[in-house]
Amino acid sequence: MSENKLIEAAKQEFKTESYAILYAPKKCYLALFDGEKFVDENGEIEIKDVYEARIFNSEKELRWLSSGETATLSDANFVNEKEFVDKNENQKYLLWGQSTGKSNGNWTQFAEARIGAFFVPIANVADKDYAQFTTVEYLKEFEDGNVAVFEERLTGISEVEK
Fold first, then answer.
1. CB burial of residue 87 (10 Å; 0-12, 13-18, 19+)
2. Full-prediction pTM beyond 0.85?
3. Residues 6+ apart with CB under 8 A from 84
4. Who's near 72: CB < 8 A, 6+ residues apart?
5. pLDDT score recorded for residue 151
6. Are residues 49 and 85 in the same domain?
7. Which domain holds residue 59?
């Protein structure tokens, strides 16, 4: 019953609406966790086949595997790390596709020839505009003296600013 374990883990960590990426054999969902269930533009998602999830908001990210492994990432995780040097709070990753200008409530449809059309949980993105994941990158000093990213945490999804 990994379905119940995913919901339990999400409820334990997130009391407010949060974004989610849910990986299942036949589909990767961009979703919202509303504190009780995962939803997409059509309503509640059937999560029985989900084998991996990343649930996130501006404060933390929960990484969940159907094997039972979980990890919660937040700034507090890294404050006491000896090698922790700094963080980059302004990293962004562009989502594939452009807005089609179509929406379903607070969800905007995007499309890319290689993957087809999909909905993103952000409202009113203008036709041909883009969306992005926002992240925090954590930096540490390695044994050779170089400083590099050792962990990143998703924090949100937003429209790309022009």
1. middle
2. yes
3. 78, 138, 139, 140
4. 13, 60, 61, 62, 63
5. 93
6. no
7. 2-73
Task: State the pLDDT confidence band at 161, using cuts at 50, 70 and 90.
Answer: confident
| Residue 109 and residue 145 in one domain | yes
Token pair 């059937």 is at which residue? 46
DSSP code string of 80-94: T-TTEEEEEEEEEEE
Q: The tokens of 124 are what?
A: 């009113």
**141 and 92 part of one domain:** yes
pLDDT digits 0-9 by tens, 39-80: 999 999 999 999 999 999 999 999 999 999 999 999 988 777
Three-class secondary structure of residue 77 per DSSP: helix
Q: 28: closest CA among 119, 113, 111, 156?
A: 119
Q: 13 with 72: CB under 8 angstroms?
A: yes
Q: How many CA atoms lie within 13 A of 162 on its CB side?
A: 4
Beta strands in the chain, from DSSP E residues, in sequence order: 18-24, 27-33, 38-40, 43-44, 52-56, 60-65, 70-74, 84-94, 98-104, 107-112, 116-120, 131-141, 147-159
